[in-house]
Structures are given as structure tokens and as C-alpha cells.
Description:
Layout: H1 2-15, H2 24-35, E1 55-59, E2 64-68, E3 78-82, E4 90-93, E5 96-99, E6 103-104, E7 107-112, E8 116-121, E9 124-129
Antiparallel strand pairs: 1-2, 3-4, 4-5, 6-7, 7-8, 8-9
Amino acid sequence: MKKLLLGLSALTALLHPVKAELDVSQIDEMIDKIQKKRVSNVEVDFQKVPSPFVVVKIDKDNNKTVLSSPEEKIRMKAYAIIDDGTAESSVNINGRWLRIKDKINGYTVVEIKDNKTVLKKGDNTMELFLPKNPVEMEIPQIKITRGKR
């Protein structure tokens, strides 16, 4: 048993690294390497990186908990507006056609004008404007025929 303990102690001493003390110049060199500006081959526009955080909200209208990004309003975009001056006016937001009183991402459409849409969510008001440069959207062609085929 003694031999086993002595053998393990000797083995541990051999395998355990010996701590060498660093002098001041070695420490200064390490600090200089850390402080140098690092260059990456990949360019990242951090303004366009979405927030990784999730916000927990309670949707009072549907009485449920909703997980959403704090940047949800940035992701809503108006693509088209059909304004005939009535409650039948509609807007295409993120590919969905909506009318007044419809909801999207917890916001309610409250006003549709010829170039903007107003959305409300509690005390928050959001205005979505049509882009100055129109976006090309593919609209399916509808063929109307009368009578039998």
C-alpha cells in the first residue's frame, strides 16, 4: 500500500506542470498582443442584427401571454394601399391584407389613407408609409367568364 501511494505521489508530481513565474516584460508582451486591434475577414453591420432578447407581453384582447421581439415594429412594412375613402379601404402589411379594426402583431389598424396607415396598440401609435420607390409585387391575374365552359 505504501509503495502504491509513493508511486501515485511521484506520478502526480511528474504530470503536474511546474509553475514558472513570468517577469514583467513577458506580461507586457501579453498585454500588447491583447490590445492590438483585431481585424476580421467578415464585415457585420450591427445596426441590422436583430435583438436576441425576447419580451414577454400579455395580450389583453386574447387573454394570453405573447413572446415578441422588442423590434417588432421595424419588421412591419406596408406594401400596398387600396383607399376608396370608406371602411372597405385595405392595406397590405407584411403580405397580409387588412382593413380598419383588423389586428397584426397586437396592433389594430385604425386609419388607412392614400399613402399611410395608422396602427394603435394601447398608448402606442405607429404610422406605416408606402415606400417612395414602389416595390414590385406579383399580382395573380383573374379571369372572369360568364356562362358554362
